[in-house]
Design a protein that fits this description.
With 342 residues, this protein is an alpha/beta fold. It has eleven helices and 15 strands. The protein folds into two domains: 3-169, Rossmann fold; 193-335, Trna Endonuclease, Chain: A, domain 1 (3-Layer(aba) Sandwich), CATH 3.40.1350. It has a seven-stranded mixed β-sheet, sandwiched between helices. The chain has a five-stranded mixed β-sheet with strand order 11-12-13-14-15, with helices on both faces.
């Protein structure tokens, strides 16, 4: 019999922010699994699979203690709970990010959601956390008391958890949904480019990797946590020699754009590894300063790609899968087509 493994749902936040109320609102028919000195753990069934919701206890326990207790599941959906009236929300969130990063090596996959709690208490602050480098997407404004925003948040969580469920069979992890799910995304983007905004950043990496694999490249996705400055490694044979290329993918749905520092780091990573070239993709484009570097970048065999390049890759994927596309040039040239000044 196959065994289904679901990610944990972890609610992080300061004392009194409303984590326990949020947990109860998300799982009204919960089962009490465990109460430890650090965490309260409940269970809820999502898509037929029992999932744990973990609410860290009072702030008398350190963030490191909390992370140590919840680090036993490699796949997690993290909810950052912030009080709607908290004037120090940025500082609080930064501290939790730092605690999470200390234990990121334990996690295979993370998804992050920003939840604004207690919106029924009065004035609700507007929050913008783009500068922390973690894609939180659009915040969910909630009131557990009035049950406002809970249905939308629960639907979003159910989708993320469902996407991360793994079935164990014959001692091997088989990631159900992934191939079919990524195929659907690759086919949808050419039809409606706005679909790019709905994609989580790890799935964007999978989309790019899948499209390149369909073109004939040998493709390796690097670890989500420790990627060494590149997200995808592709290779192909050119004139009887193997050529290696690095690809970095940035997908910040909030509108942030990679700057000179990020691009320069990618240039250095390629130079150290003596790659045949690199492709830096950003679905939201780049800062003006980066575009001014294009001349220098091309001499370093580094090319920039924006949303247009992502759409082009998906179009080629659909054609190759439907038997209507064959490369008219060698693969490296195809890799850098439709790039900025490429």
């Amino acid at each position: 019999m196959p065994r289904y493994i679901s990610p944990d749902i972890i609610i992080l936040g300061e004392n009194g922010v409303g984590k326990t109320s949020l947990m109860h609102a998300l799982s009204p028919n919960y089962n009490n699994l465990m109460d430890t000195h650090v965490s309260r753990i409940r269970s809820v069934v999502i898509k037929g699979v029992t999932t744990k919701i973990i609410d860290n206890a009072e702030e008398i326990y350190s963030r490191n203690e909390i992370m140590e207790e919840v680090a036993d599941n490699k796949r997690v959906v993290v909810l950052f709970a912030i009080n709607a009236e908290d004037g120090n929300a940025r500082g609080v969130l930064h501290k939790w990010f730092q605690a999470l990063k200390r234990y990121e090596k334990y996690y295979e996959v993370q998804r992050h959601i920003l939840v604004i709690t207690k919106t029924d208490w009065g004035r609700t602050r507007e929050f913008d956390f783009l500068d922390y480098g973690i894609d939180l997407g659009k915040p969910f404004y909630t009131s557990a008391l009035r049950h406002e925003g809970i249905a939308e948040l629960r639907e979003h969580i159910n989708q993320l958890v469902g996407d991360l469920i793994v079935v164990m069979e014959d001692s091997e992890s088989i990631y159900i949904f992934i191939r079919e799910y990524i195929d659907k995304i690759c086919r949808r983007i050419p039809e409606d480019s706005r679909a790019i905004l709905d994609i989580e950043w790890p799935d964007m990496e999978r989309v790019v990797a899948t499209t390149l694999e369909s073109m004939g490249f040998s493709v390796t996705l690097t670890s989500l946590a420790k990627d060494g400055g590149k997200d995808i490694v592709v290779s192909c044979i050119v004139e009887d020699s193997i050529q290696k290329y690095y690809i970095e993918v940035k997908h910040w749905r909030g509108g942030g754009k990679p700057g000179v520092k990020a691009v320069s780091k990618f240039v250095e990573v390629n130079a150290r590894s003596f790659t045949a070239g690199g492709l830096f993709l950003s679905s939201s484009g780049f800062t003006k300063e980066v575009y001014s570097m294009v001349g220098r970048l091309t001499t370093e065999r580094i090319y920039l790609g924006d949303r247009t390049k992502i759409i082009s890759l998906c179009e080629q994927y659909v054609k190759s899968k439907d038997g209507m596309w064959m490369p008219y040039s060698i693969l490296p040239q195809t890799l850098f087509e439709d790039t900025v000044y490429g």
